Amino acid sequence: MDPSDLTPSIRTWAAELGFSACGIASTELPGDEAHLIRWLQAGHQGAMGFMGRHGRKRARPRQLVPGTRSVVVVRMDYTPDQAADPRAVLDDPQRAFITRYSLGRDYHKLVRRRLQKLAERIQAAIGPFGYRAFVDSAPVLERALARDAGLGWIGKNTMLLNRHAGSYFFLGELFTDLPLPTDTPVRTHCGSCRRCLHACPTDAFVGPYQLDARRCISYLTIEHPGPIPEALRPAMGNRIFGCDDCQLVCPWNRYAHPTAEADFQPRHGLDDAALVALFGWDEATYLERTAGSAIRRIGHERWLRNLAVALGNAASTREVVAALGERLDHPSALVREHVRWALARHGAAPERTGD
After folding, report:
1. 155: which of 63, 148, 323, 349 is 20 to 30 A away, CA to CA?
2. Could you report the per-residue pLDDT of 150-203, keeping only the tens digit for each?
3. Is 306 known to sit in a ligand binding site?
4. Cα gap 152→60, rounded to integer Å
5. 216 is in an annotated binding site
6. Could you say which of 92, 136, 177, 263 is catalytic?
């Protein structure tokens, strides 16, 4: 089959597998490679050493997977239509805000399985071919590839934006050795809008298209392994896993589509849970309730660290202070330090211990 004849079929099969869109990108990302190097040299990756570990390979698909000639990029929407209003949760300091993408089951396996099925459909049509599927599982500049595949443009908040779907979606890539005709990149439609830059609670944007991860709440609550800088804790509010503020204010997200995937709907009431209730989870409960969830990856210690910060920002009530007091003797020095900070915010801190 001629590659140009295959592309329409790939799009059809992708749609049948539940993907919201599908495009084809080339393997050349010179401008994005230069941007990545500048970002790394500025230290904006923080403790994410893996961002620089593979060097320039992240921007060179042919080095990552030798023989790659084109990349099939897919989009899958994740906005849960059964979740509580995120703005209402953010406005209630006693409740926990969790980024919308992680309320349901972990997307990595689901999207990867669908990509594998897409590859099998292609193989059934043309015979064996070389491919590898990626969903946040390798050093891939997925937003740059998605842009070049015509799925959207990279906004000032560094997210991929789509005129008809906003930014609430996952991406996946199928690196192939097929010479597929590539799509046309989408031009930017942000104009003079800077709402996302101004909305960041911790001022993590050092400029348009420039995110200093060391100040980003998503980084601090998920990727950062140690103590959260005290200067940033008050601005974190009740955000305990990720942050959606720059997406919530984006005008294009008025067009975001509710997901058709049942697995992306909220589980265990995590879309509108009380901070005190979550802080009371022991490790066994945490592991049980986050099974199959992206939240599981931070572990119980960071979970309690993040919740302690949020409780420090909550209204001073007997319930909040009592919950924090229950964790003063926690085995983790990291947890104890954040609990003491939170209690001090409520004027109830004990004398500092030796740790």
Report:
1. 63
2. 999 999 999 999 999 999 999 999 999 999 999 999 899 999 999 999 999 999
3. no
4. 20
5. yes
6. 136
